[in-house]
Amino acid sequence: MIREVISAVSPFVSDIIVIDDGCSDHTALYARDMGAIVLSHVINCGQGAALQTGLDYAYLQGADIVVTFDADGQFEASEIPSLIDILIKENVDFVKGSRFLGKKANMEKYRFFCLQCAILFTQLITGKRFSDVHVGFMAFSRRGIQQIRIEQQPRMAHGSEILSQVVKKKVPFREIPITVKYTSYSRAKGQKFTDYLKILRDLFLGSFKSLL
Amino acid sequence: MIFQSIVGIAIFLILGQTILQWRRKTISLLQASIWLFFWILVFLFLLYPDILNRFADLLGIGRGVDVLIYLSILVLFLLVFKICIKLRQIEQNITKIVRDRAIQHPIKKE
Predict the structure, then answer these.
(1) Contact call for residues A137 and A186 (beta carbons, < 8 A)
(2) B91/A33 Cβ within 8 A
(3) Least CA distance to B94: which residue of chain A?
(4) Which residues of B touch A46 (CB under 8 A)?
(5) N or C: which end of chain A has fewer CB within 10 A?
(6) Chain B residue with minimal CA distance to A30?
C-alpha cells in the first residue's frame, strides 16, 4: 500500500516523509527504497504523535509548506496542488480537507454518525463549527507549523486538538472539499467507536491534569 | 474474634513491610509515616470499634463500619484517579523520547 501512495504523491511534492509508528511489517523499508525519508517510532505512539514528529522534522529541515497525507490510500494525490494553491493565494497558514463540502463519499451510516458527533464535539470545545474534523489531509505553512502544536500526543485526540489550537491562536485557515475513497483497507484502519471514547477520556484527563 | 485476629495479624505484617521498605529506601520517610499512621489507626478501630461508632454518630451515619467503607471508597477513587494521570504523564514522556529518537535518526536511501 505504502508504495502506491508514495508513487502517487511524489509528482506533486519535493520531499516525502513517512512516519513509521511502530509498524511491524516492511513499510519503513519499502518507503525508504522508494526514496522517502522515514522517521521510525520504536513503539506505537498514535497518529497525533506521528503527525507532530513529521511536522517537527519538516520544520527543522526548513520546509515552507507541509502537506499531511494518510498512507492508507484514501486521499487523492492530485488534490495536493489545490490545497497548496489556497495556502499561497489566500495567504492562510492552515488548509484542511473536508469530506462534507464536496460530493458525498460512499460512507457507512454509522461512520457518518460518529463523524457528526466528532464535529459537534469539536464545535463545543472550540466554539466554531467545522464542516469536517479528523481528516488527515491538511496543509501547513511554516508559520502554521510554528503555531499549531499537538500536545496531547498519545492516541487520537489530535483531530480536535489541532482545530482548537487553530481557533485559539487565530491561525488563518480555509476548508476545501476533498475526495475520500473508502476502500476495505482504509475502513479497517479508520476510527472505531471505541476510539471516540478514548478521545473523550484523553481530553477529560488532560483537563484535570493541572488539578493533581 | 476470629475476624479481628486475622485482620490484626495482617496489619502487623503490613506495618513490618512498611518499615522494611522504608529502611531499604524504596519509600520516603513521609510516605512511611503516612502508611504507618493509617494502619495504626485501622488497628485502633479494630480494638475499640466504639471510637468509630461515636465518630459515625457525629457525622450522622448509622454504623461505624459504614464510615470506614465510605472513606475507603473515597480514598481508593482518588488513588485510582492519581494513578491514571500519572500513567498518562509517563505515556507522554515515552512519546517524547520516541519522537526525539525518530527525528534524530531519519532513515534515508544511501
Answers:
(1) no
(2) no
(3) A45
(4) 95
(5) C
(6) B109
Residue among A106, A71, A70, A97 at smallest CA distance from A182: A106
Q: How far is CA A38 from CA A150, B6, B48, in A?
A: 20, 60, 68
Residue carrying C-alpha cell 475499640:
B48
Cα–Cα distances (Å) from A199 to A46, A48, A156, A191, B107, in that order, read 12, 11, 6, 11, 31
* Top-confidence residue, A68 or A196: A68
**In this predicted model, what pLDDT tens digit does every residue of A74-132 receive, in sequence order?**
888 888 888 888 888 988 999 988 887 765 656 677 777 777 888 888 788 777 788 88
ipTM for the predicted complex comes to: 0.74
Note the pLDDT tens digit of each residue in B54-81.
888 888 887 777 888 888 899 899 999 9
Do B85 and A212 make contact, defined as CB atoms within 8 angstroms?
yes
Dump strand ranges (E) for chain A: 17-21, 37-41, 65-68, 94-98, 138-141, 173-177
Residue from B81, B83, B99 to probe the interface with A (highest A Cβ count within 10 Å): B99
What residues of B are in contact with residue A19 (Cβ under 8 Å)?
102
Subunit contact A39:B92, Cβ cutoff 8 A: no
